[in-house]
Amino acid sequence: MPAIELSKAPQPSLTNPAQIRNFCIIAHIDHGKSTLADRMLQITEVVESRNMRAQYLDRMDIERERGITIKSQAVRLPWRSGYDNQEYILNMIDTPGHVDFTYEVSRSLAACEGAVLLVDCAQGIEAQTLANLYLAMENNLTIIPVLNKIDLPAAQPEKFAEELAKLIGCQPEDCLRVSGKTGAGVEELLNEIVKQIPAPIGNPDAPARALIFDSVYDSYRGVVTYVRVVDGHLSTRDQIQMMSTGVRHEMLEVGVISPEPVPSKGLGVGEVGYLITGVKDVRQSRVGDTVTTYVRPAKDQLSGYKDPRPMVYSGLFPLDGADYPVLREALDKLQLNDAALVYEPESSAALGFGFRCGFLGLLHMEIVRERLEREAGLTLISTAPSVIYSVTDGDGKELVVTNPSEFPEGKIMEVKEPIVRATVLAPSEFIGTIMELCQQRRGTLLGMDYLSEDRVEIRYTLPLAEIVFDFFDQLKSRTRGYASLDYEPIGEEAGDLVKVDILLQSEKVDAFSAIVHRDKAYAYGMAMTVKLRELIPRQQFEVPIQAAIGGKIIARETIRAIRKDVLAKCYGGDISRKRKLLEKQKEGKKRMKMVGRVEVPQEAFIAALSTGEEKADDKDKKK
Amino acid sequence: MEPRADHLAFYIHIPYCVKRCGYCDFNTYTPAELQIQSSLEVISHDYIGLLVKEIEKSAAVSAAKFVPTIFFGGGTPTLMQPSDLGRVLDAIRKNYTLTDTCEITIEANPDTVTPDLLSQLRSVGFNRISMGMQSAVPHVLAVLDRTHNPANVEKAVLAAKAAGFDEVSVDLIYGTPGESMQDWERSLDAALVLPVTHISAYALIVEEGTKLAARVKRGEIVMPDDDETADKYILADNKFHAAGMEWYELSNWSKPGSQCQHNLLYWYGENWWGAGPGAHSYIDGRRWWNVKHPGTYKDKLLETGDPTHESEILSAEQREEERLLLNIRLPKGIDRSSLSVEQIMKLEPYLADGHLSREHWESGVVSLTQSGRLLADRIVSSL
Fold first, then answer.
1. Distance between CA atoms of A601 and A197, rounded to whole angstroms?
2. What burial letters (b/e) apply to B68-105, b meaning 16+ CB within 10 Å?
3. Between residues B128 and A335, which one has the greater pLDDT?
4. How far apart, in whole angstroms, are the C-alpha atoms of residue B111 and residue B149?
5. How many CB atoms lie within 10 A of CB A246?
6. Is residue A190 left, alpha or beta, with left meaning phi > 0 and alpha meaning psi from -120 to 50?
7. For chain B, percent of residues with pLDDT exceeding 70
């Protein structure tokens, strides 16, 4: 049996780097990464068969339900190689598989020497996988191409082997064929990992340097920091120091994940494990930072550290205003585990008190919202996502605007918006539709390549704001779900952008203001006013709904005054019923928000805000 | 007006119809639904026996002496034998004193009344009759699932007059799917040429569980929009006014002095006893209602002497709510001095928009204008 009993396997802290292989799996959502990981856990016998469950490593409910990994994992797998019958330690570092978390992916990759490129051989490679593959290649990782799901009737391993071979410059026959579901080929894959991926190299005698590739808050243990030791040694007795901030922490525990945490004496060169320091907030133990010892600090930080920067902002408001303190507490708690989440209090005339929150992207936004709702039992309204604009006003003063309400009134010299480089992978029959969509969204074609005979990679620059709008939905629906998208920020560009306000009876409704391109202002104004006319019930007076740029009205709709609101009949037997109806109506009125004299039901706000919001989850949900 | 403590009105429910109309959700049953094989005479006789029992029970419970009004509704009260209806009146007379002006009303289906029946009803004591006319337009009646021939209405009204009914009323329904403004006008004109002293006109309400509701749900027929229904109300109000009938409640108009006293008593919050299955009663802030099914009603009444299904005791707040929601429906309206400053402030926009009568307002009364009547529920719910 190639599995090794844990107690007899090379022990953490004492493992010879030559026996270590650090690898990650690069895969698109639903290409079977978690299932393959499950099989690896089983075959190496770190999880007993009777304890096995599907998607073993996915910790959060949301991860398991949506089939996406939000945070990475690192599991130590002892393995006796089928080639040389030697004992090895394979550290499998799981990576988040989404464009929002590119930075976290890059840090996971930096902790490895090799990557398994896992592709569903019924679907072929997807845009995000390609992006991560390029990232891995830039990091000089050894790539092992693997075709998964060979058990599927729709599998086309020959076709996609060609595609992969072309992408990474190998022979089609070099692609391994596995089935995470049946376990076929997985043992061979483990052997290939040992054979192809280089052992880590580091200086055991140098001052300690370890790369943080993940940092997770645990309510019992505080922050658990995942590291890969590059040089030197970390042990339980050390006081450690974060190199970006110089902050010192006591080491409470060092260990490895196998796949439950197992404390060890320490971690040596090339080893992957966790540290617990009693820190309560992940922002004090940031992904990408370098850990060294206080007594013998390293001189140079490992390269590549960046502060996470939000890309997309949105207001989150509790449906019930009384829940505001609950929301604040829930955000505080979430931030302990999410260094990228930023927020500050915001008050809206229409929606009451809430928070302006910054996110890495749309998926991040949705995950945060879903966790807040699920974990704190809240019902939230989120305003339309906005990107970060740099606005120069009439006096030449530059402002950073993440909320339409901050957009200066009066003369504007220039507005700059974030631009991304987007990559779309799709069957070639959709080239026309995709280009049409990108053109509509103010895109500029950068280039196009055929991955295989009938699959293309199309590259565009696009304003991020256009993607944040319903781009992904549109892309998916126009390509019958076949296209995949990846993007990375590449800077800012000036654009002819204006703020469109929506007015109800001449009163501005802040929640509906939006910054849009001038060419689209009219369409936005029309869409919003028409929608609101349908959503807002008739009042006892006429209500004009207008869209305006500054003082200029660009669209107008009118809600006619209601003329009849009475039940004609009211006899003896009806009185109780009528009173109860009235009480219900009064109760309903309490949930109305007043905009001037206009009563607007909460539901109207939610409905008006819900469209135009990209449903990022569709791409991440398993069928 | 303060409720008269020693007065008690009666509502007598007759839960039988020959056929159920498609829009009706009243507590009524056809013999087929009840699977009764007996003749109508036998049903009538037996059922009236139960009503008499309940009336006797009322006398044991209530301290009232005088009965100002009695109203027989249904169902189709005229399905009962006039002599049986007379037994009910006798039971009331035996236990209470009818006031000199006591109004005794019966609802009637214009198809089933004959001159003979009408004079029998007169002779047992009825002095007011209300005919279910609904519409004068056959295709509208068909949607309502009504069986009568519009021409029968005129015959029935004239026969009632001839039998000695001074107070004759007709009921109209507007806003039936497929009813045009011209159709409605035709119905109004047809009602106004009749020698009636009172007209009720209701906008059709689609009640859940009715055949009509099912047809609307299936999309077979489409309910008219509220604006059109509002126009029909205004047309009716204008025509009635021109014919010398004034509104004395949102949906009721009469010649001077011909208001239905029984109706008014509900809206004034006076005491009444409802006898029969599903009937509601109200005495001094307590409301209760009987079990709905005639069979259950019979069993419960005979076994326990009390057919009450549920009751509620109104809190002071609920009584106040009811006072407002009922009084706003009347021209005499709500006394402004009975309202708080906040409530008055909430009413001011309606006054400004012309939904409340300025003239009344200045004399201290909150009274609806024509446009305000159409918004009565909205206005009262703002209080």
1. 60
2. bbbbbbbbbbbbbbbebbbbbbebbeebbebeeebbbb
3. B128
4. 7
5. 9
6. alpha
7. 98
What is the SS3 string spanning B234-299? HHHHHHHHHCCCEEEECCEEECCCCCCHHHHHHHCCCCEEEECCCCEEEECCEEEEECCCHHHHHH
Amino acid at A335: Q
CA separation for the pair B6, B10 (Å, rounded): 13
Q: Each residue of A208-238: b (16+ CB within 10 Å) or e? A: bbbbbbbbbbeeeebbbbbbbbbbbbbebeb
Residue range A114-137, pLDDT digits in tens: 999 999 998 888 888 888 888 898
Q: What is the pLDDT of residue B2?
A: 59
Q: Under a CB-based contact definition with an 8 Å cutoff, are residues A127 and A97 in contact?
A: no
The β-bridge partners of A92 are A23, A75
Tell me how far apart the 2 most distant CA atoms of chain B are, in Å: 63
The two tokens of residue A414 are 């220039």
DSSP symbols for A262-323: EE-SEE-TT-EEEEE-----GGGS-TT-EEEESSS--SSPPS--------EEEEEEESSGGG
Q: Do B381 and A582 touch (CB under 8 A)?
A: yes
Residue B68 φ/ψ region, left for φ over 0, alpha for ψ in the -120 to 50 degree band, beta for the rest: alpha
Share of chain B above pLDDT 90, in %: 78
Of A568, A583, A585, the CB nearest to B202: A568
Give the Cα separation of A611 and A614 in Å (integer): 8
Does residue A575 belong to the interface with chain B, where contact is any CB pair within 8 Å? yes
pLDDT mean over B104-128: 94
- How many whole angstroms separate alpha carbon B186 and alpha carbon B189? 5
Of A560, A576, A585, the CB nearest to B381: A585
pLDDT over 80 at A6, yes or no: no
Q: What is the per-residue DSSP string for A388-436? A: -EEEEETTS-EEEESSGGGSPSS-EEEEEEEEEEEEEEEEGGGHHHHHH
Please give the Cα distance from B221 to B219 (Å, whole number).
5
Q: Report pLDDT digits (tens) over A467-478.
A: 887 788 889 889
The chain-wide mean pLDDT, for chain B, equals 92
Rounded percentage of chain A residues whose pLDDT exceeds 70: 94
Q: What is the 3-state secondary structure (H, E, C) of A465-529?
A: HHHHHHHHHHHHHHCCCCCEEEEEEEEEEECCEEEEEEEECCEECHHHCEEEEHHHHHHHHHHHH
d(CA A539, CA A239): 68
DSSP designation for A261? E
C-beta neighbour count of A61 within 10 angstroms = 12
* Prior bond of A259 cis (ω within 30°): yes
Closest-CA residue of chain A to B318: A579
In angstroms, rounded to a whole number, what is the distance separating the alpha carbons of residues A580 and B350? 23
Element (H, E) at A554: strand A552-559
CA A82 to chain centre: 38
Report pLDDT for A60.
56
Among candidate residues B161, B14, B167, the one with its CA nearest the CA of residue B85: B14
Contact B23, B204 (CB under 8 A): yes
Report d(CA A610, CA A455) in Å as an integer.
Answer: 33
Q: Does A578 touch chain B (CB under 8 A)?
A: yes
Q: Which of A541, A560, A563, A578 to mutate to test the interface with B (most CBs of B within 10 A)?
A: A563
